[in-house]
């Protein structure tokens, strides 16, 4: 009995095999963590600086508006570019661009009268560089580990990002409040510089000889491929439906102050989902034994919506924190299995373009969801907005799973695309050996 319990407990442990076996995976994971942790200091400092200079909430929100067009245009173009050039070089060049933008923000913060227009220009430029970089990083990720290790590698990568999300904003807030905005940009500059230098240690990852230069036709081919494959389409639609229907973050200030009467614990609401996601990652060993990834995504996304809805009914903030943590754990599981489907089935020559499409689906759902939550809350109440969003999320995700039967039936052991990629990787690894 005791031995059986220990065996089950061992199945929960995060699998460290990719970390032990791949030097480039370690570099990507550590550099990504440093990059993300550093950027969190700027994530806190920039809106604080904008509000301090303008005393306008709209001015802070306008930063999102100036970022949308670069994200859409260069996200798609960056995906096409990632299928044609050395992805390592893309990480280096775009990382250097973000370092330069951060240096301008730091210089502006050191002025006696910082200029608002410079902040907006830097926001647009940073969105451009990030949109060009992420498809290359996401497309490179599956090539640095063995095909069979992708679920474990995805979990480890998520754990590193969650740690940065937990620690970064908290430290950034303390630094902004004590030392000042310029210090926060200084820390971000150091983090981005270190991460970009680490990319130099990666070996080159050139694309195949049949790759084509970026073009509108190539981007359209990527979109057609994503739509034609219902298993891929399901990963995008489930995420967009779940985030659009149940995205309560914009309501946290009102929920904490007006509904739960606990304004001092507002920060805990923002951290709860990250705590749940980190716990889910640390116990993610079980995921490598799951093969029906499509239904795992659907069930996890439905659990996200259910947890959000229950949190909206919370009689106390502690009740809400527990269920927001459950929601964060469910969202992590959903995201993990979506990433495994992408990494194990998309051909390398299409991976960059599909990463660009995934980035857009990841962005558009939350942006629309925040607008929906705010509108419903203004028309009804904060609780009604959160609870109704959770209910609509569960219904929408269930309808998506029912409509996209290929997605629901997806099995990594037998799916033709997964089998093809597994065989190609096995042959490539045999040639390298």
From TrEMBL:
Compartments in which it is found: Cell inner membrane
Transmembrane parts of this sequence: 27-46, 58-78, 90-111, 181-202, 233-256, 268-287, 294-311
Principal subcellular localisation of the protein: membrane
GO cellular component annotations of the record: plasma membrane
Membrane topology: Multi-pass membrane protein
Keywords: Cell membrane, Membrane, Transmembrane, Transmembrane helix, Transport
Keyword rRNA-binding tagged: no
PANTHER family to which the protein is assigned, alphabetical: ENTEROBACTIN EXPORTER ENTS (PTHR23513:SF9), INTEGRAL MEMBRANE EFFLUX PROTEIN-RELATED (PTHR23513)
Protein name stated in the entry: MFS transporter
């Amino acid at each position: 009995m005791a031995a059986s319990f220990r065996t089950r407990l061992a199945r929960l442990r995060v699998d460290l095999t990719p970390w032990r076996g791949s030097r480039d995976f370690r570099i990507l994971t550590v550099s990504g963590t440093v990059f993300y942790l550093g950027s969190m200091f700027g994530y806190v400092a920039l809106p604080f600086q904008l509000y301090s200079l303008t005393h306008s909430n709209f001015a802070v929100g306008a930063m999102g508006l100036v970022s949308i067009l670069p994200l859409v245009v260069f996200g798609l173009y960056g995906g096409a570019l990632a299928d044609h050039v050395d992805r390592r070089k893309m990480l280096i060049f775009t990382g250097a661009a973000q370092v330069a933008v951060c240096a301008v923000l730091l210089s502006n913060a050191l002025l006696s009268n910082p200029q608002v227009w410079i902040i907006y220009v830097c926001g647009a430029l940073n969105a451009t560089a990030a949109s060009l970089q992420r498809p290359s990083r996401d497309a490179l990720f599956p090539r640095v580990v063995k095909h069979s290790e992708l679920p474990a590698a995805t979990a480890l990568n998520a754990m590193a990002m969650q740690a940065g999300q937990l620690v970064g904003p908290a430290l950034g807030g303390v630094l902004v409040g004590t030392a000042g905005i310029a210090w926060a940009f200084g820390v971000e500059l150091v983090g981005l510089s270190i991460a970009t230098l680490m990319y130099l240690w990666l070996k080159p990852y050139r694309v195949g000889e049949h790759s084509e230069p970026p073009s509108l036709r190539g981007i359209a081919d990527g979109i057609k491929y994503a739509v034609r494959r219902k298993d891929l389409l399901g990963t995008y639609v489930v995420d967009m439906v779940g985030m659009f229907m149940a995205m309560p973050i914009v309501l946290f200030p009102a929920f904490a102050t007006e509904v739960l009467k606990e304004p001092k614990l507002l920060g805990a609401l923002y951290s709860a989902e990250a705590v749940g996601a980190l716990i889910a990652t640390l116990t993610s060993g079980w995921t490598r034994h799951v093969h029906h990834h499509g239904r795992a995504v659907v069930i996890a996304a439905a659990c996200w919506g259910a947890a959000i809805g229950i949190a909206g009914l919370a009689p106390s903030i502690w009740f809400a924190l527990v269920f927001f943590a459950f929601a964060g754990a469910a969202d992590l599981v959903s995201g993990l299995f979506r990433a495994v489907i992408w990494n194990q089935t998309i051909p390398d020559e299409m991976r960059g373009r599909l990463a660009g499409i995934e980035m857009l689906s990841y962005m558009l759902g939350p942006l629309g969801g925040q607008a929906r939550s705010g509108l419903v809350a203004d028309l009804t109440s904060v609780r009604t907005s959160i609870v109704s969003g959770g209910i609509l999320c569960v219904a929408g995700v269930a309808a998506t799973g029912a409509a996209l039967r290929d997605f629901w039936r997806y099995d990594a052991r037998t799916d033709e695309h997964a089998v093809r990629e597994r065989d190609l990787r096995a042959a490539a690894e045999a040639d390298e050996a």
